[in-house]
Structures are given as structure tokens and as C-alpha cells.
Amino acid sequence: MSSLVRRLGRRGPLTHVRALHASTSTATPASSKQATAQLYSSGRQPIALSSAGITFTLEDGRKVLDGMSGGAAVQCLGSTNPDVVAVMAKQAAQLPYAWHQSLGNAPGEDLAAWLTARSDGALVAAAFLNSGSEAIDTAIKIVRQYWLEEGQPQREYIIARNPSYHGNTLAGLGIGNVASRRGLYAPYIPDTFQHVTTPQLKRSGESEEAYVAQLAKELDDKITALGPQNVAAFLAEPVVGSSVGVMPPPKGYFPAMAAVCKKHNILFVMDEVMCGTGRSGTLFAYQSVCEGVQPDILTMAKGLGGGYVTISGVLVGPRVADKIIAAGQWKSSQTYQNHPINCAVALSVVNKIERLLPNVQARGKQCVAELQEAFKDEPAVYDVRGQGLFIGVEFDVPSDLSPRFATRVKNRCFDNGLLSLAVSGGVDGTQGEAIVLAPAYNAKEAEISTMVEILVKSVKECLAELK
Ligand code: PLP
């Protein structure tokens, strides 16, 4: 299989990374760690000191059960993984860095081969970057280069969905659509990012079949309006993550959207930054929920490094790889691309993930079943849903009663000893108030039940306060 694997890119460094949030160059008042706190937190967050298994210990001695794999669906093996630490140390001693116009490295090659070999032939080449946002930017650039090499440079439009979150770089914010995250930094690359509706079947009130037909028509109409000859790609998360709080697609959705892409000959990009790398119960999320539809380009991140390293991946299928390789060069690269330590650690992480997939499926089913049972008579809980260990609990609490109900619940969960994530996606930020749970893949049955208990107790407490 490895002879099929062709990694993209052989150019020199373009970018340099500098930490904004924890400058050590300014004088630090010795009395308070929080005086140097990250810009985004304003120093108000409790500080985590250590973690063991799936529990954090805070500076004040409190323990918090980690229902969110480190907070952002990343630390998918929990902490305390001596094997991964040993791989990291070994690689750091042997070859910490090697990336040049004419130099690759073995861990990058090995990781590309391992991942592509498990893609059912969909993906044949990969490049590794440092964050999900960079993977999205890179995917957009690969789409652009593909159509340039095809002799169709006018294909500039990429259609994504509304709402959706695809990262925090300018291109990521531009192609995504969450009002609260996006508004501050507009305008974006003018007009090249377009949007169609993100499926929310239950809210639609339609039958699954009618809703899917409606969404496919919407994409078809959008492409027709833009001019099919001007459209480059459609981009979607197989399981929506943070914008609407975990949303598996309706049955038939991916085949219907793929048929429209095929009709107009456009590329299908799948963003698996959050839902992929085992989170949805299979290594790639498309293998769980896309009913045989495969991506032309796929992004992954988060769980890929298990929280030990900051790594993301862009994987491409034969249609894209052949075109770009035939052209001779992939015109994008970064200083820390295919970083040997990142890639070696990621390979160790994905090997462990593969063995944990049955637990992801079983614990995910357990968590959804226990939450559904606990909330079955609670009208303020609009929906409980999940795919693998990726679970969403959506609320229906009038915003005049509590404008940010999910945030209130998340804060109460934290006080009660559980780390969860609050999202308030929705098209305009008013719908889709939800709590997300995305625990480590090795979470135990009893730990999942404890998470459910704390979440249920926290929701009840918050609701009682509204009355
Ligand atoms: N794409 C999706 C679906 C995400 O959920 C995220 C982050 O949450 C990103 C892209 C951006 O990833 P990162 O925060 O690593 O840049």
C-alpha cells in the first residue's frame, strides 16, 4: 500500500509561529500566576495543574471529571500514557526536525501510509500541519490549485453550510458561519465562500426524505445560481460538531449531496477536525455516517495528536493527488509541516485509537441511552443525540428566560465536577443552545454514568433557578 502513498509538498518554510498568549518578555508580578494568563481568558479561569486518567486536578485542589477530552475533544486517550510519552522522547532524541524542499522524514511517511491504508481507497496522500484551522486553509488552497491545474481558474466558489465552524484563521472563519465568532473580523475573501443550510432534521419538522430532497435542491440551485463552471467544491462536516452541538446527518443526506457534486463535477471536502479520528466510532467519520460517500479532500486534527502534540492532517484522494502530482508541485508549505515528533506521536496515538473503537461505540450508546432516559420527561431538553463518543444535549429554553442557557449549564457542571462544552450555534446564535460531551475513548462505563449524573443534576439545578 505504501507505494500508493504520495505525500504532497517539497517546498521550503513560509511561516513562523509566535505565541501571542503567554509572553514571558514582560515583567511578571510574582504574586499571581493569573497576571500572565492567556489573552482569551482575561485570567478568570481556574487553572489546571495536572491530569491523570480522565480527571483534572485544579490549582485549588478540586477534581474535575473530563467530559470533553481536555476541553476541545482533543485528549482522546486521556492523560497518563507512558507509551506515547516514550515515543515522543525517542523521536526527539533521534530526529526532532527535518523539513526542506528536498527532505522528507520517516514519521511523516509512516503516518501518511498508516492513515491512507485505512481509508478504503478514498485517500492516497497526506500532509500534516499544526491545527485544524491550518488544515482547513490548506484544503482550500488545494482546491484552488486543483482547479488551476485543471485549467479552470474561474472555479472560485466554495460552498459550505450555515451554521458551521471550520476554524479561527481568516479563511476558516470566512468559510464557516457562526455569527458570534465571525462578525468581529469581517470582511473575508470577498464572495468566494457561499453557504447552504446545515441539516437540523428535528427542527425542520419535515420527513427525513423530504428534508434531504429539499437540501439537495438547495445545493443544486445555489450551484446553478453561481454558475456551475465557477464552483470549486462543497465542504461539510460528516457529523456537525460545535456549531449546532453534535448533529449526525439525516439518512440519505451525504449520497444526495454527493450526487449534486457529481452532477456539477465539483470536489467534496469533508471536515473531520472534530468528528474524525475515532470520535464518531470509526477511524474516519465518513465511514460511519456518509453511507458509502467518500471525500476528495479530508481534514483531521484534534484527536490525531491525543493532546500530546499539535498536529492536523489534510488527506486527498486520487482525483486531486494525481492532478497536483502531475503538475509537479504542491504550492503550499509551512515550517512545521510533517513535524517528525508530531507525526511519530500521532502514529502511536492512532494505533491506540484503533484498538479503542469498540469502546467508543459502546460507551457512546450507553451515554445517549442514559441521557435519553434521564431527560425523557423534561420538556426543556429538546434533543439528545450522538454518534460514537460525540454527544449533544440541545435545550429549548426561551432566550428571554435565559439567553445563554447552555453556558449556564456548562458552568454549573464545572462547579459540580464535570468539564463539558456549551455551544450556541444556530444561524443567528439564538437556536441550537446545547451541551456537548466528547469524553476520552478509554472512558469507563462508571465514568460515563457519573458524567450523565452530573449533567442531569446541573440541568435540573439551572432549570429550578429559572422558575
Ligand atoms: N474544523 C472544525 C470542524 C472544528 O471543530 C475546528 C475546531 O474546533 C476547526 C476546524 C479548527 O481547528 P483548530 O481549533 O485546531 O484550529
UniProtKB/TrEMBL annotation:
Pfam families: Aminotran_3 (PF00202). Belongs to the class-III pyridoxal-phosphate-dependent aminotransferase family. It comes from Apiotrichum porosum. Keywords: Pyridoxal phosphate. PROSITE patterns: AA_TRANSFER_CLASS_3. One of its GO terms (cellular component) is cytosol. This is Uncharacterized protein. GO terms for molecular function: pyridoxal phosphate binding; transaminase activity. PANTHER family: AMINOTRANSFERASE (PTHR43094), AMINOTRANSFERASE CLASS-III (PTHR43094:SF1).
